[in-house]
Amino acid sequence: MRTFLFCTTLLATAALADPEIVVVTATRTPQPAAKTGESISVIPAQEIKTFQFVPVSDALEFTPGVAINRNGPMGQPTTISLRGAESGQTVVLIDGIRLNDPSTTDEESILGDVLANQIARIEILRGPQSTLWGSDAIGGVVNIITQRGGDTPFALNASAEGGSYDTYHLNAGANGTSGAVEYGVGANFIHSNGISAADKRNGNPETDGYTNLGLTANTRIHLGSDVSLDLRGYYTDARVDFDDNSGFVPPFLVADSFAYNTNRLAAGYAGLNFDLFGGLLKNRVAVTATPAARPISNIRAWPTSRRTTSSPSARRASASPSPATASPPSSATATTGATPPSTASTASIRGPSAR
């Protein structure tokens, strides 16, 4: 006799059910969620810890009205849509810093490399918010807020885990309050050799791994009773392998390649907060900077004997070599630039481009 156990867990994220929850995304100032008049959900830190989410996109999938699309395993391009809007019509923030990528055609957010570490809560604001967050906030706003401050000068939390496919994940974070300074810092690292992005049943044994290093910092310095300085930072350096070799004859199957994509993002925020007229007028002057680099490297190795063939059928065959007959990478010669479709080249390297 076999016994099967089915367990279904619902993630409670409706902020309006709890009037004590205070949010900042709806009006850009602290307000009780029940008084904002907006459709807003909150994913608290305890639920992120309980469900052991690794990428933030996994946590967002539980929220009503949110659609997450990821092109493959963790680290692949990930888009978010609120209430059916286009991917570039949702603003994604981490500590007030935009993660939308201006190099893409619709300025979609760089969400695939954001890991869940040292997060205090995630606020999801649904509906048009162009007045407060700009013209691209048509679907809504996702605001990721990291830990800052605490009841003690120093509090440390760390975790380590590992699993199949040479996967290991390290998290560390610290936060506290010392005098006039509230701070929170976090670091995370994940690596996995993964599996082949191309179908292994078609003779593609090469694995496509993923590596990601992420850092966050969130500090507030109280310069006076009505003046404070905010300093925030976010950094990620990730590499993900993928397969893009394909034959030029049916059935056009994807084959192993040495292609990989690196994503580097460094974001900084500095803001001065000051109140006037006894707190009746709250002001903030801030500056942000977000340099990003997302180059794609692609090296293909082709057998030397097939480069000298002249018949069309041989050229078609040489365009899709099997991994068992491909020459080692060390014997290939590299050329830079695009290769014409009719010419078989031993290797091609593509420079920086947006994926």
Helix tally?
5
Low-confidence stretches: 1-17, 301-355
Total beta-strand segments? 22
Return the structural class: mainly beta
Tell me the number of structural domains.
3
Q: Which outline best applies? A: globular
Helix content: under 10%
Mean pLDDT across the residues is 79
Describe the sheet with the most strands.
Answer: 9 strands, antiparallel
- Please give the radius of gyration in angstroms: 24 Å
Describe the structure.
It is globular, with a radius of gyration of 24 Å. The longest helix has 7 residues. It is mainly beta and 355 residues long. The protein contains 5 helices and 22 strands. Strands 10, 11, 12, 13, 14, 17, 18, 19 and 20 form a 9-stranded antiparallel sheet that branches. Strands 3-8-9-6-7 form a 5-stranded mixed sheet. The N terminus and C terminus are likely disordered.
Key terms for this structure?
355 residues; mainly beta; 3 domains; nine-stranded antiparallel sheet; five-stranded mixed sheet; 5 helices; 8% helix; 40% strand; disordered C terminus
How are the SSEs placed, and which strands pair?
Layout: E1 22-23, E2 31-32, E3 39-44, H1 45-51, H2 56-60, E4 66-70, E5 78-82, E6 90-94, E7 97-98, E8 119-126, H3 130-133, E9 140-146, E10 155-163, E11 167-178, E12 181-192, E13 210-222, E14 227-241, E15 245-246, E16 254-255, E17 260-276, E18 281-289, E19 292-293, E20 296-297, H4 304-307, H5 312-318, E21 335-336, E22 348-349
Parallel strand pairs: 6-9, 21-22
Antiparallel strand pairs: 1-2, 3-8, 4-5, 6-7, 8-9, 10-11, 11-12, 12-13, 13-14, 14-17, 15-16, 17-18, 17-19, 17-20
